């Protein structure tokens, strides 16, 4: 992985995140987000509300930094389900294949433990997202459920959605 820095992201970082976030979402092949989602709606979705955390991964110092990726971490469900976390990751196209995704998942597991979560659950991993599935399995996640044909991939058609879990 390149020399990278993790830091909490705020609304002022959205202009750094938006270009790669938009590219990933517009492709429509990994996330169950509306591919036509606009700037403000994307920002609201990504940043959520407390206790959600958003992290920015960048290289380059001093500022301005080059954004490599971002992830969000928060409760999977409110109330009695809030002890299980969930996370989402976005890697810029220029940083793919450089270990940024792996570093973000590892960092999020540390942050989830520090926040007191008892596990990290991904509710909707497209089975066609083979690199992400392999990474999550390599890092100790298990597939705990499958929604047959739960994701409409723009090229492959209906593919399974995986529910994945990592106990903390």
Arrangement of strands in the largest sheet:
1-2-3-4-5-7-6
Secondary-structure content class: alpha+beta
Number of strands: 7
CATH class of the domain at 5-119: Alpha Beta
How much of the polypeptide forms β-strand, as a percent range? 35-45%
Report on this model:
This protein has helices at residues 14-27, 39-47, 100-114, 130-138, and strands at 5-8, 53-59, 66-75, 84-91, 119-126, 142-153, 157-167. The protein is α+β, with helices and mostly antiparallel strands. The chain has a domain at 5-119: Gcn5-related N-acetyltransferase (GNAT) (Aminopeptidase). It has a 7-stranded mixed sheet with strand order 1-2-3-4-5-7-6. A hairpin with a 6-residue loop joins strand 2 and strand 3.
Brief overview:
The protein has 168 residues and is an alpha+beta fold.
Keywords for this structure?
4 helices, 168 residues, Aminopeptidase, globular, 36% strand, 7 strands, alpha+beta
Layout: helices, strands, pairs:
Blueprint: E1 5-8, H1 14-27, H2 39-47, E2 53-59, E3 66-75, E4 84-91, H3 100-114, E5 119-126, H4 130-138, E6 142-153, E7 157-167
Parallel strand pairs: 4-5
Antiparallel strand pairs: 1-2, 2-3, 3-4, 5-7, 6-7
């Amino acid at each position: 992985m390149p020399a990278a820095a993790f830091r909490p992201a705020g609304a002022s970082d959205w202009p750094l995140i938006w270009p790669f976030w938009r590219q990933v979402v517009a492709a429509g092949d990994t996330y169950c987000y509306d591919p036509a989602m606009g700037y403000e709606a994307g920002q609201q979705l990504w940043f959520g509300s407390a206790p959600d955390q958003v992290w920015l991964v960048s290289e380059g110092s001093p500022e301005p930094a080059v954004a490599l990726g971002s992830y969000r971490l928060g409760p999977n469900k409110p109330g009695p389900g809030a002890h299980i976390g969930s996370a989402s990751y976005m890697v810029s196209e220029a940083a793919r294949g450089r270990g940024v995704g792996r570093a973000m998942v590892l960092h999020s597991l540390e942050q989830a433990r520090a926040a007191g979560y008892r596990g990290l659950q991904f509710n909707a991993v497209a089975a066609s997202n083979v690199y992400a599935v392999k990474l999550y399995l390599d890092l100790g996640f298990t597939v705990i459920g499958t929604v047959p044909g739960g994701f409409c991939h723009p090229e492959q058609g209906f593919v399974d959605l995986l529910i994945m879990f990592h106990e903390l």
